[in-house]
Amino acid sequence: MKMALVGFGNVGKAVAQVMLEKKEVLQKIGFKPEVVAILEKDGSWIDEKGLKLQEILSLGKSSPAWKSNTVSKEIIPELDCELIVEMTVTNIEHGEPGLTHIREALNSGKDVVTSNKGPLVLAFPELMGIAEKKHRILLYEATVGGAIPLFHVAREALLINEIISITGILNGTSNYILTKMTEERISFNAALREAQERGYAEADPTYDIEGIDAAAKLVILANGILKMKRRFSDVQIQGITKVTPEMIELAMEDGYLVKHIGYVDRNRIEVMPRLIPQGSPLAVGGTLNVISFHTDVAEDITLIGRGAGPRETSSAILGDILYINKIRKSER
Ligand code: HSE
Question: Residue 176: is it exposed, middle or buried by C-beta count within 10 angstroms (0-12/13-18/19+)?
Fold first, then answer.
């Protein structure tokens, strides 16, 4: 399958790295990835015969395939490939550059996998409309819950169920901070610094600690799973910046933990710090995320996994890529 990677930050590099590492597994399942382009904001690596990923990972912009000053949105429609993997930085105010990249890709007849929340938060119905009109697939597993394959589970394994509500911890950075404050009694700022150093936090960490990232993910869950047209402005948001060590201590004395919980059903969509009983399935620590689907047949299904981190996120992206490959192969 010919594909292009758009955005080559930590996540893009992890996707390339894991594809190299898993060459034999990919071969066994009949998937031959041919990356014909990698696009960055200040240039691109392009080779229609397939780029040498190892060389690009080690040489970066010193690789002979590098050309500076190319413009991604202009190149995307011209690329001879079936799939665009959009992994540029999330912006939920205007969605760019990802929004234009996804529109250009779908409009020029390419399937899309994205880890970019911004375009989906701002334009979910529009993008799905273009995908449907053009008979293309747009998948976005990595946008919510990091490595957790929650959209796959909802779309396939739980197909017979009506999903009534979704509750969960949707931001790895804020869960990491609350966990560190609880278990190691370190300050809010020290815990945030650690999360940033480990590459969990958003480019602007206020997205994480003010609940903006979690709210964006709730909008994607509402649209993608509950099939409701919810917008960012519909979400009632409270971040974790007002949680104090004293609150955490008092909660602990009563057998509770302070957790940043997102919730969405037909009537409510909100994220805020809440008291969760110690030992509850929702009481996961560190950068773990948890998603609990309340359904009409299976009752409650809870999934736990790494919610942040480039390598973990690449698992979700590659899951989507392989799913598209399977569908396209079955059509041939
Ligand atoms: N900053 C996000 C988080 C990354 O901490 O959960 C994954 O969306």
Answer: buried
